[in-house]
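Researcher: Structure prediction, please.
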Amino acid sequence: MLLSPVSVTACSIRKWIITKSCMWSDGPVVYEATFTTIQSARGKKSAEQRWGNHSTKSAVTALIEEGHHA
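Model: Predicted structure follows.
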């Protein structure tokens, strides 16, 4: 029986995760905390790039005030 390219790729990824990856070596709780920390840092970096020196609160306040004056 021939396997589809997707199946072969999935098997290869699974094998690598099981034999080479250390993502879950510390357990699921540590992995989840690490993932959350990384995503939070990415979000903060993205917000800084988007808003520059302006705080998110002041930007939201400005939008609300614009809405009241319109």
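Model: The chain has three helices and no strands.
Researcher: Thanks, that helps.
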